[in-house]
């Protein structure tokens, strides 16, 4: 309540001061401009105020401008001139124009605000439905797989061969990892949106970080991941946990949405205390008109294969920007996607620091 009073008080003050300052400047220049020009300038000021302020402060500014115009700019100067029908008509016409301008502009602003709120509400509902639809599939599928495998093992444990039991356990593991990944995505998005993300920076060997990410794809047979470590690469002070999730998400995305046989490459670069990590593939790339949208929350390319909630790239962008870095997407001339991560960071060439 106190904050609202201060806000309203500021509107009154700014409205009155704006009209007085403009009138003062016009009064100093009254030898060069006539009162019709001053009237238009004051009307313009009232219209501008009505765009950003409430109707009552603007109405006061309109009435004040009418009296200032009448007293200081219409001959005889410094004399109240509503002394006949003509002067009264002139005064009230100006006052009416100022009030109408203020009221109409204020109504237009309120209408635009309602339209924006309606659009935001519709967008929120659409995002909610998108998330609900995605989660209903992404969570139900692995849960059903796990429950089905458990029921099979419980009911037919004696009759199941060791090989088939191994298959069931592998399916359960894959489903559990998929379920865990979706839950992590939701938690990470919540951390980004609520501002609860806190970086835990430490010296990191980025070569080891990338090898750790690659090791999370132990049985990958459909794609080839290539990475040549940079032996003389320095240590960078980053949040290794968050960057691991970023790199895993980009590589997993490439595995999920490119054709079998696609090569996925990872490269490292150092540029003036900036860490650059490049992840590329030789697939078909992204539609040129959709490249900027792929980082939006819940966005999925049209005709994408089933799977995913459209959060992965949005989270990757959020984690990189939490490092004050940037991530951008290009299509390679020969085909394929090319993600570049660029992060400012402290650099050290003393390898033994990573063991401290």
UniProtKB/TrEMBL annotation:
UniProt topology in membrane: Multi-pass membrane protein
- Sequence ranges assigned to domain Histidine kinase in this UniProt record: 134-347
Q: Which one of the record's GO molecular function terms can you name?
A: ATP binding
Q: Which UniProt keywords apply?
A: ATP-binding, Hydrolase, Kinase, Membrane, Nucleotide-binding, Phosphoprotein, Transferase, Transmembrane, Transmembrane helix, Two-component regulatory system
| Listed transmembrane segments | 12-29, 35-53, 60-82, 88-108
Heme recorded as keyword:
no
Q: Which reaction does it catalyse?
A: ATP + protein L-histidine = ADP + protein N-phospho-L-histidine
Q: What is this protein called?
A: histidine kinase
